[in-house]
Records
---
Amino acid sequence: MSSLAIGLILSSFVANEPAAVALHKAVAPFAGNWQAVEIEINGRKLPEDQLKDIQFLIAGNTMTTATNAGIRITFKVFPDTTPMAMDLDLAIGPNSERREHFEGITTVEGDTLKLCWNNGQGVKQRPGEFTGADGTNNFLLVFKRVKR
């Protein structure tokens, strides 16, 4: 292999390193245990007594339910977008029988995590703002970090 080919291969790793570091920095604030404090779906808020059972553990780019309800979510964030775009892939069931893909937005501000995506009824598009108001067809989820 020529030194030019080796140089091109090595430079591609070096060129991609800043993007990988930026992506790691973007995902790092998501890590931890999260408790739902607000969920609104197209104008309907979930009652507080139902929120206490909705918890997620986020490690790397994977979210799992604290109750082991058979829901596993992998996600990808796009840190250069405003608001930050997030693609979620849900696998539901013990053998991931049901799969769904959602394109949403997210933010982590201190110990508050917000997720928002279109619920797939009607036109499916990435939301431009964090709202689950009536007529938006959006899910809005707000979580607080669980301190251990």
---
Amino acid sequence: MPRVASPDSRQRRSSKLAPSRFSHWPTILVIEEPTVRQLLKTRPRMRGYRALAPVSIAEAVSCVDAEAPDLVILGLRDDSGIELVRKLKTRTSAPIIVLSARFDNDMKIAALESGADDYLVRPFHRKDLLARVEMALRRSYHARGRSTMLVSGDILVDVIYRLVSVRGKRIALKPKEYEILLRLTESEGNVLGHREIVTAIWGAPGPRHIQDLRAYIASLRTKIERDPARPARILTEHGVGYRFARV
């Protein structure tokens, strides 16, 4: 199994944008914020998060209990949102980022006093939101004693900033390459079928996606293998899929 570095080593109808649950993928609960849900789904730097989008307040509360999210993003529309912040804070220690179209200092103070960790007023730049999400997730991981680093041999993955280092050198990965690599490392030593990987990454298996997967695997090998022609980490299980070898 890949090991997780200690924190001290580097300091239904609920819409799941990442179709499979990955233990190292930060989970974000997005309440009444369709724009943010789409941003998490489509923007390359925000890929690699598992987003849950409940369709009602009752379902949002149930998601907090069942899923233990690492972060909550809440769209604040009226005073009822302040009460929801209070309610969520009694059920989770996860940071809460409130997004609002109201530049109202009293509302902001009320949200923060009710337990919100951050308050962002629209319109905002997506990079501003991303920076706040990353900072909040890092605080959340450390507060819970979880490491932000996944270590597999000479490969290090920072699951918050989605950065990958191989043999001490930072490498640049495309969003899909990162998602595939994280999926493989989490299942180190086990065979993952083509359809299983495709469903997890793209959401729907198809012939084109299988070809895309093979192309991404070939590209990954050039970036992480010492000899891409003789791969030692990402192994092909002919007719089945791929296995990330233990080292």
---
Amino acid sequence: MFLFFLWISSFLLTLFVLVFCLFSGPAGWHQEKIGQSECDRCSENEYSDRSPCKKCPSGYSANRAAHKCSICGPGLIRPATRKRGECSKCIEGTYQPEEGKAECLKCIAGQYVNYNGSSSCISCPKGSSQDQPGSSSCKQCDPDTYSENSSSITCLDCAAGSSSEAGSSKCLSCEAGMYSNEVGQPCKFCKAGFFRKSGQVATSCTPCDKGEYQNEKGQASCLPCIPGEYNDINAQIKVRTLLLYNLFLQI
């Protein structure tokens, strides 16, 4: 008789726990096992509204004993396979503009993001480029290259007759006394015997005319021969002396 009473008591207690957890217990708690004396908390990424615990869908998260799942905001994700409760931030080079998503998106080429948890990517500024998707930085254009637009995938070579410094958004014509006859190459000094004025085509230098000379490189003009000197051919770096003129001066 005592054992029967003990069994009845245990059965009634179990029934009470099951009914209490199912209908009257706190949300986020549950109990489906027979013979238990208390309710159990739902695990992370599970929830219960006084019913058996259910898994949160991807893009949602929940801590233990949750009565509902919380949606992951922009810049945050939670794959269905992730066991930890909180949403995770998108890493550098990735983003997520929408809420409730399971995965991040890679920044496209020409864009970047250099911090975690971003909801958008940043365009590479002028003077830089990025040809790889999912990047956390842009690459500065090398000397004698440029990018005039933001979000550039590659930098372009400067045209012949122009050059640029690193990180430039445009190329500039070679300075006077300099030239460049190849694409993407730095400006070079005009050789001695040659010159180039500002405003002239910068792909070549001009030889000094007869009666002129230039003994230094990188010059914007030639020097005239003075009385008693002469040059009868172009591109000379020194002058010739008139012998008769010197003899006349000695008389």
---
Amino acid sequence: MRVGESKPSDGDAELEPMLHLAAQGLQTVLRDPSELFKQLHQVSEMLRELAVDPTRPALVYRRAGKIESKEIGNALTVGRTGECDLSFPECDEMSRRQFTITGEPGRYVLADNGSLNGTFVRGIRGRITTRELCDGDLIESGGVTFVFVRPA
């Protein structure tokens, strides 16, 4: 499956174990952060199989029951307006320009664009301004959960 294509809705059975692992990981972040990262790695591997071209960094998310992905390129802005590279007009909790991910030499950095509800990375409930992303990072923002997938 190519980047940008959606997994057919009959693939929900494959999606359930991934969502279960992600939920478990978020619950364990305060008790044992190392366990969270193991679970996120498993989620990342499943996402690669389901929806992502493993040669390019991407954000993977679920919309209307389908897994979708968006390649990041040099930069990717996520928000509610159509001016964003990845737009979620249906998400009232999301700011017009919620966050931007920028590719820098050897790394990708997420910057919250001053959103009202904040952007959270790795299940850590602290408002961020910038954060370097790692493969498998969960990003929660505007009522949507994303997974950052980066090739090795």
